[in-house]
Each structure stands twice: as structure tokens, then as C-alpha cells.
Amino acid sequence: MKFHQAPTIFVGQVHLKVQNLDRSVAFYQQIIGFKVLEKTEHKAVFTADGKTPLLIVEQPENVKPLNHRDTGLYHFALLLPSRPLLAKALIHLAQSQYPLQGASDHFVSEALYLADPDGNGIEIYADRPADTWEWNNGEVNMATVGLNVQDLLAEDDGTPWQGLPEATVMGHIHLQVSELAKIEEYYVKGLGLDVVTRYGRQALFISDNGYHHHIGLNTWNSLGGKAPAENSVGLSWFTLVFPSEEIRNQKIDQLKAINAPVQEENGKFITNDPSGNTIWLVVNS
């Protein structure tokens, strides 16, 4: 998974707010297949490999339900290391009888969609080989067509599902935003990422180092929307992982040059995109 390691800039962790921590822990363990790395009264940290945090869920005080018209999370996406393992995940989800929201072929990848009990969107996917992706004038050919479920299921080897594979990574994050012009300036001029696909005036996909997308941005539900309340269910923050402090500092300078906010808090560099999505800028350890 060369697109999720140095020298590429990629999404590392996602932090969500939920209404009921125990319910969320049960879901993310039993349905998604995470291991619990750490748990307190109000927060749980999940991992696939037993050591690397990928997802954090927290139950705020006086938590409010998700408003799908606010900006924030559209979905976070867990990238599995192979197509047979995606088939195994599909079989597990079918046997668990947890409802799927979709199953799609995007040409560059195949994906399953669902939501957690609070409505936070989740994608579980496997990439097709990068040398099969079609590029035209710097844009990758992505679409959404129905997944050939039977063809995918034929990949399964019949062994029992063991939870998320250890090599699972946070493949990308897809955000709801209030508009696209300032958003594009922020992520391209500020963070130095590349536009790889546009869907008219409603969606934008960006990445580093030739990936099909590390971040998706859309206004489908949130055009003109506001950032959610601090105690609302949904996205709290996510991390962008940089290969070195030098490159992170360069991106921070670029953000400041377009008057984007960057704060340092206890050694952490934190920024907000123009739609209020919070990003922690971290360095690959």
C-alpha cells in the first residue's frame, strides 16, 4: 500500500463523536472487526494490527444526534489489502445481517457502504492494481456502478472471518463541505494536494502521489451548510500524515499564505478547512 506510507501524504486516523460509547464499541468490534486498543469511560481507540490507532470514538457530554445537512463526515474508508479479504468482509456483513447502504464498483476500487449506529458513514474497500487505473489529462477515471457481487464472492477461500486484516489502513476520508471554491484553494494551494477527479460543481477528489483519492469533498447534502455543534455526533478531527517535519512545515507556511488557520496546541499542529473540518497535521513516526 505505497499510497499510505512515506513519501506520500495520507489520512492516518479519524476521530468520531457518538451518542453511546458501549453501543459503538460493540458495533466496531463485532460488525467492523476492529480490536480495542484502549478504552476509558468516554472514549475508545480501535486498531486493526493491535498497535496502530486508526479510529477513535468519543461520547461527549450532552451529545446531540447527527444532522446530515451539516458539514463534516460523509464517510471514512477502510482499505483492505486484497480483493479476497473484501469478499470475506462482505460474507461476514451478510451473515451478521447488518444493513448495507450500497456496494459499488468505482473502476479503481470495489467498495461496500454502511453506517454506524449513529449514522456516521463507513466504506470498506479494496483497490484494483494501480497500473490498471485509467488517467486522462491528470484525472483518474472513477465512476459508480453496481458491484459484481457474485464475482467478488468467488474470491473467498472459505476460511473463517478473523476481523479486519492487520494490514488494513485508513484509505481515505470523504467530507461534506459547504462550497468547493475555497475548499479547493485550501487543499490544493494550502496543503499542496492534487485534484484527481471532479464531478461538476458538486464534488472534488484530491490526493498525493497519484492515488485515486485520499480526500473526497462534496456538497450533495451540505451546500451552504454550517459546521456542526461541538457536542454533535459526527467528525471531531482526522489526521494528515506527512513524511517529515520539513514537509509539514512547508505545508503550514502554504496554509498561512492563504490565511488559513493553523494553531499549535501541546506540540500538535491543528488547522480547519473553510467548512470547519478539523485536521491534525502530524509527522510519520
UniProtKB/TrEMBL annotation:
PROSITE patterns: VOC. Keywords: Dioxygenase, Oxidoreductase. Transmembrane segments: none annotated. InterPro entries: Glyas_Bleomycin-R_OHBP_Dase, Glyas_Fos-R_dOase_dom, VOC_core. One of its GO terms (molecular function) is dioxygenase activity. Residues 10-127 form the VOC domain. This is Catechol 2,3-dioxygenase. It comes from Bacillus oleivorans.
